[in-house]
Amino acid sequence: MSHKNEFFPKISKIPLEGPESDNPLAFTHYDENRIVAGKTMKEHFRFAVAYWHSFCNENSDPFGVGTRMFPWDKSSDPMENAKYRMDAAFEFITKLGVPYYCFHDRDLAPEGDSISQSEKNLNAMVARAKEMQKVTGVKLLWGTANLFTHPRYMNGAATNPDFTVVCHAAAQVKAALDATVELGGENYVFWGGREGYMHLLNTDMKREIDNMGRFLRAARDYGRKIGFDGTFLIEPKPMEPTKHQYDYDAATVLGFLHEQDLADDFKLNLEANHITLAGHSFAHDVLLAAQSGMLGSIDANRGDAQNGWDTDYFPTNLYDAVDIMMILLEHGGIAPGGFNFDAKIRRNSTDPDDLFIAHIGGMDTFARGLLIAEKIVQNEEYKKLRYGRYSSFDDGPGKEFETGKLTLENLRELAISAGEPEMISGKQERLENLINRFLR
Ligand code: XUL
Ligand code: CO
After folding, report:
1. Is residue 394 part of a domain?
2. Which ligand 1 atom is the nearest neighbour of the CA of 104?
3. Listed residues 378, 403, 430: the one ending a domain
4. pLDDT, tens only, 349-373
5. How far is the CA of 273 from the centre of ligand 1 (A)?
6. Percent share of the chain, pLDDT over 70
7. Residue 104 among the catalytic residues
8. Ligand 1, atom 5: nearest CA belongs to which residue?
9. What pLDDT does residue 3 have?
């Protein structure tokens, strides 16, 4: 990295110091080479830094202007600044020691006055990113297109009632797919921020949802044509910025993918705060997707129990991390997805080291979660209480039922011969106490 563009000069590579360390700029638990359940921590998490929150978001809110200082905003030329920003991003990512990053097209390069100017800007920054990936070894977890900031998308992108807007969205997705392929991106994300409605009275819901399906099939076909062999991901969210978003939650998106003939190419990118906004626990949607073979990737962050919006806090809840890592250990892990920190430091976190501290906290939380989860999933009492409950389906008529061999009349006969079932406790409190014992 060239010295003149060093943006975090007081911070060097974040070291691992272990659980006893009080150094805020060191890892306590994340040790990328440590083997847990047959894989290194680096492979378990495939952590990624989100370009938009970390390098583009000045932390303005509806009541005030941004508070973050961006030393990389040095020039009056937006393309020059995009280059400085990229230097800052790769410096940060390598000092933190994270293997991946994720971007929107507009995070990398400013929009131009025309589609071809925007494509030119993006291509120039992609060439630069490719070079920096080569030098640093940092890789692209996923790319995406920002189809929500520009005023033209106020009524939606793929679901816009105006066909011309749909075409503009397609042009942007085409360029973002080209960029993702050029940079070796392992996944491509669709987050439909404005794919929903503000009021049903001016909305033909079925037509909009079908147009979204057509749009995604066209994007998939183009991606496969240009050699993208990674996973396409949809990131559910129930609302914000729309009143109601069509990709509401994992179950809704799974239904949509099957109905729209997209289930072979698409999986889910699940974000903690989006799931809790939909009224589920983080673990609920992750488990649902994992058990359906549709878990693609995770946007790691956290909401606030007192707020009804997308606060995007950095994830520090150990209990949640344990839940998620138990699911991943029991269902084959997250690859080729990863854990992308779609999280932002608070508006009043204004020191340059706050961005490091926030990511270190998130990584250590999940690393601790993994170490604890590994012990829990091997615990005989846990296994018996959770899975042993279903032993009546393991053989005999229960197994015949699960293999589709019994009719409703058969089941009635079996009920009569078995008599009244025994009361079998669900042991919820015992399980909760058991988990807490491992969290000590
Ligand atoms: C918005 C959000 C997005 C997506 C990518 O809530 O999560 O940043 O992850 O567009
Ligand atoms: Co996200």
Report:
1. yes
2. 10
3. 378
4. 999 999 999 999 999 999 999 999 9
5. 10
6. 99
7. yes
8. 191
9. 46
Specify the pTM: 0.97
323 annotated active-site: no
Place of tokens 């909009």: 208
Selecting among 87, 105, 107, 285, the annotated active-site residue is 107
Task: Judge whether residue 1 has pLDDT over 60.
Answer: no
Within a domain: 79: yes
> In angstroms, what is the span from residue 53 Cα to ligand 1's centroid?
10
Q: What is the CA radius of gyration of the chain?
A: 24
Share of the chain above pLDDT 90, in %: 98
Q: Is the pLDDT of residue 407 over 60?
A: yes
Domain range for 102: 35-378
**Last residue within a domain, chosen from 358, 378, 398:** 378
Q: Which two tokens stand for residue 191?
A: 């987050």
Q: Is position 27 within any domain?
A: no
Res 5: pLDDT: 81
Q: Based on the domain organization, do 78 and 180 belong to the same domain?
A: yes
Q: Which mutation among 142, 191, 313 tests ligand 1's pocket best, with the greatest number of atoms within 8 A of CB?
A: 191
The CB of 144 under 6 Å from ligand 1? The reply is yes
As for how many domains the chain has, the answer is 2
SS3 422: coil
Interval between CA 44 and ligand 1 midpoint (Å): 22
Clarify whether residues 102 and 165 are in a common domain: yes
Residue 21 lies in a domain: no
Please name the residues in contact with 127: beta carbons below 8 A apart, sequence gap of 6 or more: none
User: How many angstroms separate the CA atoms of 318 and 368, rounded?
Assistant: 8
> If 0-12 CB within 10 Å is exposed, 13-18 middle and 19+ buried, where does residue 138 land?
buried
